Amino acid sequence: MAVPKHIISAATIVLNDKNEILLIKGPRRGWEMPGGQVEEGESLKDAAIRETKEESGIDIEITKFCGVFQNVERSICNTLFLGKAIGGVPTTSSESLEVGFFPIEEALEMVTFKNFRDRIELCLDEASQPFLVEFYPTKIS
I need a labelling partner for 33 at 20 to 30 A (CA). Which of 40, 52, 104, 112 fits? Predict the structure, then answer.
């Protein structure tokens, strides 16, 4: 029997005091929310905070757990949080070509990957939480 290999990631929809969303522009996927893999021995919340700081320069406080997106075929679980900016300065990194806060409607238009837009919208819709979205990328719908 093969040993399972799963990837757990944590991402955060970060709002500032103007109710704008923090986005990073990655080199491969374009505009998205900050996030990445949880390291061994790290909590989901700590990973979300660390990844946001590494990719954007922004310090955050997690305010809510929102839900999980699971790519069943690739054994990837992406945990999603809502957070608020509490410090730092927008700063690019090797994982972010651009960083900024944008009005919600503008931010949603900037995010071109549909499942990333879906994640943001679900995290902003309190009535949808907590959510579990399972998807199978190669299945035809």
Answer: 40
Cα–chain center distance at 35? 5
What's the number of CA atoms in the CB half-sphere (13 Å) around residue 86? 8
What would the pLDDT profile of 79-134 be if each residue is shown by its tens digit?
999 999 999 999 999 999 999 999 999 999 999 999 999 999 999 999 999 999 99
Q: Both tokens of residue 108?
A: 């949603």
- What kind of fold does domain 7-135 have according to CATH? Nucleoside Triphosphate Pyrophosphohydrolase (3.90.79)
Q: Give residue 27's identity as a one-letter amino acid code.
A: P
Taking the C-alpha atoms of residue 5 and residue 27, their distance in angstroms, rounded to an integer, is 26
Single-letter code of the amino acid located at 134 = E
Delimit the domains of the chain by residue range: 7-135
> Rg of the chain over CA atoms, in angstroms?
15
What's the whole-model pTM score?
Answer: 0.91
Token pair recorded at residue 65: 């757990």
Q: Please state, in angstroms and rounded to a whole number, the distance separating the CA atoms of residues 89 and 81.
A: 21
Q: Chain-centre distance of CA 135, in angstroms?
A: 17
Are 60 and 124 contacting, i.e. CB atoms less than 8 angstroms apart? Answer: no
Helix (H, G, I), strand (E, B) or coil at 125: coil
